[in-house]
């Protein structure tokens, strides 16, 4: 028989014996489960309603009720019921587990669970396990200066923000990848099950390998209603729901009811069955008794009434089992004596005098329900992943350098060098690094990773498949939500990676980026939260070079989204070539608790800096490219040409060359920005450059023509508060796109070299003779371009093949 190890000094039982023990709790075990559950329900209701009299030492009065009743009751008793039983599973088997609550506002139930387990008081000593601490627990909930009503970053044991629905499964699947001993309990609310991200995330079972990954146990909690009406899956015929989930590949186990203690016995049996099937799958895979076919992982469908154990009716209207129990079932309690008495009756139905001792602490029977130490789900280090994080074993990124003897002499696909770097990171870190990409790894020139790893896939394969196997660890699925969410779960449990996608399609999962940024921001204020590996996002196939795909693929919006995040977590990098990309990537892979957004195209592009120059440039974040302009540094230039982004950098350098050749007496300074976050003032962002440094680059009063990869307003936002910020004239993407040539994209968005030259002439501090003629020349070039692309279906040779040493008079 396969023997399963357990923790502490418990005897080792074989797999079948453990399942039998779990399946049939005795009367004492059921009594303990029910006492813990009643205590949790009591604490949940208390958090929603009470600001005084936490243990009902006296009759409730209006003064004991919070002035604002906020929170959500309906899903909470189901969440705590599952939590109680999973804790028993952990105590019996020693299973490492984390708990992810998908229902949006089950916060009070999970806070109560951490409090009963003691973890909450360990991380927040002021919320002690006594009457005073319980009062503080109640008063802080959904209150100013307190905690939110969902399972937020402040909740010990959480890696999943319940405020925005749809991500519980993607986070759970990411958490167990390369985490073989972890079980992620993912409770899916039936309202959440209606969201697009959740509907797509059932497919996670097609990518989990039982040899080296942990397991996810989804528990679809069908309680029948959302905030104001029925849910789809709860109203479907149960047979249809079963077929739906079986079609995704799950082994569906169902349990239903609200009778007690019967429901305790039934749920204990199905949880034991599910765990037994998980262990059987893993034991077979890890013991060599597996044919490699995708396992049918178990999934539990649990049907209980919404608002279970709450008031059945209020004012003669049914509440429990309906949408009316979703938030605060009893309203106006301060002003309605009947409602006040109903609330007291509800609270006393849990018999708190049996659950808490004279000091207000949970009695021994309840404390004994908690697993030991780190096995408590609220204390699991997997849910505070920075505790488990190990630095990547990084190769020297300098070894992948592109040789650059002179700027713009050669071209290279910059992201291909990043792929080579990640290939070797995979080799050095076989259990803590993954690339997540929506079916675009080769397209984005990152395919070198396939030299050391296949794409991971547990469904059947055919002879036509290339680099696809069950052992692969490059994660490709055509879902930005899955890729983004898997990486979040992977990061939050202490591992490293990158999410790479086409620039325009990053907006599909932009809300996830925002939510993760909020999580990181809140975590920074909690000293007990250890820093986790950064969320690294690579955007390529960018707006400026999606000329063949057209307007639908042309959108740099995620830059704007990330810029709205607080400076403590937001980083945006626009490396102009391969060597700067390598230097940026090395920094990002080593960093902690940031969102690092890197934007660079995959097409062959001019290479500007050798590796030493690239390292210095990325360290500074921005710098003057003396070789590109005519500024001698002795006095202020006549115009500053600035740029951020690979395509617009080429246009800026080309514009400077035109000015140098046509107006040699005009002093032109070229400034390249690789780290956008150097532009704000230091008080607005920790990467912001000093006033002195900003003046050295941009002067105090010379106009700046700024060519930017994204929307022009972003630069205005970043330089707000800088000296004479109105002097910045920004050219960028202005939603002008179509299926056209690469250079025509810059023309349509008025960011071409010719537009930049005309801007420079219009805004220069002084103009030498010949400026009017040069403007006319630029206009003629634009007219020539328009005729040429229509006739020849490609860009003019002088543009298409331009390099720094080229010059065409006509």
TrEMBL record:
Keywords: Lyase, Thiamine pyrophosphate
First and last residue of the signal peptide: none
Domain named Xylulose 5-phosphate/Fructose 6-phosphate phosphoketolase C-terminal: residues: 602-803
Domain Xylulose 5-phosphate/Fructose 6-phosphate phosphoketolase N-terminal: from-to ranges: 26-387
InterPro entries (alphabetical): THDP-binding, Transketo_C/PFOR_II, Xul5P/Fru6P_PKetolase, Xul5P/Fru6P_PKetolase_C, Xul5P/Fru6P_PKetolase_CS, Xul5P/Fru6P_PKetolase_N, Xul5P/Fru6P_PKetolase_ThDP_BS
Protein's GO biological process: carbohydrate metabolic process
GO molecular function, one term: aldehyde-lyase activity
Cofactor field: thiamine diphosphate
Pfam families given in the database record: XFP, XFP_C, XFP_N
Family recorded in the similarity comment: Belongs to the XFP family.
Protein name, UniProt field: Phosphoketolase family protein
